[in-house]
Each structure stands twice: as C-alpha cells, then as structure tokens.
Amino acid sequence: MPVIVNIAGYPGVGKSTVGRLVAEGLKGRFVANHDSMAPAFALFDVGSPDWWSLVESIRCSTLLSATSICADTSIVFTNVLVSGQARDRRLIEQLAILGRRNDGLLAFTLIADEDVRRRRLTDPARLPPKLVDWKIGQQLPIRYALADDYFYESVGAAHQIIDTTELSAAETASGILDAIGSAGDMSAPEMAPGTITITGVRRARRIKRQFDAVITIEDPQTPTRWQLRFHQLPQPIHLLLAFEDLDEAHQGIVTATEDHVEQAIVFGRQFEQAKLLIHCHAGIARSTAIALAIIADRCGPGREAEALEQMLQLQPEAVPNLMVMRHADRLLNRQGALLACVIEWDRERPWNRRRREINRAAVLDGSG
Fold this sequence. Notes:
Blueprint: E1 4-9, H1 15-26, E2 29-31, H2 38-43, H3 49-66, E3 75-80, H4 85-98, E4 105-111, H5 114-121, H6 129-136, H7 149-153, E5 157-163, H8 169-181, E6 196-200, H9 201-207, E7 213-218, E8 237-242, H10 258-270, E9 276-280, H11 286-299, H12 304-314, H13 322-331, H14 337-347, H15 350-367
Parallel strand pairs: 1-3, 1-4, 2-3, 4-5, 6-9, 7-8, 7-9
C-alpha cells in the first residue's frame, strides 16, 4: 500500500540524502525541501517574508497534488525545521494536507549534534552556497522540532525521532524503511462485549472485521478508493456518516447535523453489548465526539464529566468536534453540559485550540 513519508529536521541532519534512499526503497518519488526554493532564490532575499511566502505557496501546491494526482504512489517529502511559531504553523498545515491521503502518513524527525550538522552544511557538494550561512544560523531547541507524538497523531501520522549523529545515510534510511514496514501495531486488543474502540482510518482498515459494528465518519467527497467499506460476507453492521470536521456551520460545506448525531446514538444503543469500532480520518475529532455522545447516552444524565473521562481513556489525544457536541447536548437533553466539559478540557490542552484552528484552515482551503 502506498504511503507518504515526511522527513523533518534541523538543517544539516541529512534529510535529502536519507529521503532519496527511502524513496528508492519504496519505489516511490522524492520531493526535497530545496525543490520549492529555486524560484524564491531568483526573486527575493533568503529568509525574507516574500521569500517564505513564495516557498510555502509552491510547497502547498505540491502537497495538494500529492493527495490527488499521485494518490497511488509512495512519496517522500523533506521539511526543514526553523524557529518561530509561523514556521510551526506552516509545518502543521503541510502535514494536515498530506493527512488527507488515507493510505498512511509517517513522520520522522532527524536530529544530529551541532558539529556534525556544521560539517555537513559546509560541504560545498551538499548545498547551494546561498543557503549555507543562513542554515548554520538556525539553532533551535527540541520543542521546535515538534517532537510531541500528539502533534503528528492529530494529523493522522505515526512519528519517530532518529539521531543521525553516528549513523550513515544508508543506516538511517534502512531504519526508516524498517519502521515503515512495521508501522505500528495494527492489531486490535482483546475486547469484551460493549467495548468501544476509536481510531483513524489507516488502522481501522486493518482491524475492521474484528468488530460487530462499525461507525465510519468521512469527508463528503472522499474518493472511492480511499473509503472504508465491506465487500465480503460475513461483515459487521456498518453505519456511514459523511461530514467535514468543522466546529461551526459554514455555507456550502456539509458539517455535522442533528440527524448525523441521532443516527450514531441510536446505532450505539442497538449495539450496546457489541464490540463497536468508531473511526474518522485521524481518530481525533469527529470519531471522539461521536464516541462521547454514545458514552454519555450510556452513562445517563449528570455524568457528563465521567463520560468524557471514559472517552479520554480510549483516545487521550481527543479534540472532539464541537458541532457534534452541541447536537448531542440537545438530543440527550443535557443543557449544554457535554459541550461545557469539552471546552473545559480544551482549556487544559493548549494544543487543542491550535489543532482546531489549523484543521479549520485546512478544510476551508480545500473547499475553495
């Protein structure tokens, strides 16, 4: 199955050399970070706002093509990490675009000691001279490497950090290819009747037949080849819901409706003693909100905080869709208690608000 691999890291950690080897191993295509910079070099000063604007415009167009034109091909991208919230945001947006391809997004952050990076960067065979001084100046703490697994999981990506200081490019590439080959534990644990499992579509495809019932939440325009469906008997009972992951209504975009949420709650009641799988794209927003609505229904009124806690035990990195929560509050007659619990949870998780902002931008950009 084709995959998208994003290799990010400090300047000088070996992203391009390693990326080419990984692409060769996957029999896929390689797009280096530098490929988007050539027109910017010709027009603007390196690192200026206009320079970055052009680089990111070219890069986002390339990534969007990778989600459609090259959808049946493995692609390896590299991404340089530099300091600043604006660059953090750009990387999140780029990974969110790549995450739209349902065949797997794997992220690797490469790190290396400063002296090793400097030696690599000053090798004239490696980089355009125009970049050397600027890249050597990029020293940033590990927090800017966005090494928090939650960040990557929020866009549907498995993530691994690799220290290349004492590794050759071939050794690093081999480790990445091994990780791709065994990308996480895709099996489902032993489940008792009444168990709910929340996950993203990539894992759901692997484990879907281990359940009695499945709720799929997908984008309204999801291409056929990316959909989770059942084509052979026996098969679980399958409920399909299609709406975008937006927290508020938006003209011309299908968002969660009361009917969507009511269907899910009724489905959950029908299969209260069954093994139930609930998935969306990343397993973070729409699926966790639907799961919370079902769990809150099972817990009963006045136990909304307990229902949220139960859902978080199933998916600790949840950022539940707020539209779903509003509808669930009305359908279950909870007077806003579910939404209030989720908003309070958001306050304790700074990443939640940021993830909502980035996701909103990605959905609205894709709709226009």
